[in-house]
Write a structure and sequence with these properties.
mainly beta; 4-stranded antiparallel sheet; 0% helix
């Protein structure tokens, strides 16, 4: 049997440092895929979350992702979501939200945080990329 190659144009996902809240370990992740609208070169910036339930009981997890251009940008919410995570299991990287930007030589970053039902929000887990790296 031969292996079928994956999508050669699929974007790589890079994850930032981990944070935790209670029994949940979280990583914010980012991918950037090149595209175009007519003659304009674009970049699809997508925020992802990886989460692992280190506890012995299942839990409901809420999460949010934000985006900004590092030099002078302000944080914009990309999306939010919920997931049911069984004891000892992990989710992700799961897409939280995305934005399409015109390519430019700027660094962009996302940040993700999460909380289990009844717990406090975690600290932020950031990840960044050059907007139009090749």
């Amino acid at each position: 049997m031969t292996a079928t190659p994956g999508d050669a144009h699929a974007a790589a996902i890079a994850c930032g440092g981990g944070v935790s809240t209670g029994r949940v370990a979280i990583n914010g992740c980012v991918s950037a895929q090149r595209g175009s609208v007519g003659r304009v070169i674009t970049r699809e910036i997508t925020a992802h979350i990886k989460a692992r339930n280190t506890g012995t009981r299942a839990l409901n997890l809420s999460y949010e992702a934000f985006f900004r251009v590092v030099d002078g940008g302000h944080w914009v919410k990309l999306g939010s979501g919920r997931a049911y995570v069984r004891a000892g299991e992990a989710i992700g990287p799961a897409e939280v939200g995305s934005t399409t930007r015109v390519c430019g030589p700027v660094k962009v970053e996302i940040r993700v945080h999460a909380r289990a039902d009844g717990a406090a929000w975690s600290n932020w887990s950031p990840a960044s990329t050059k907007q139009c790296q090749t």
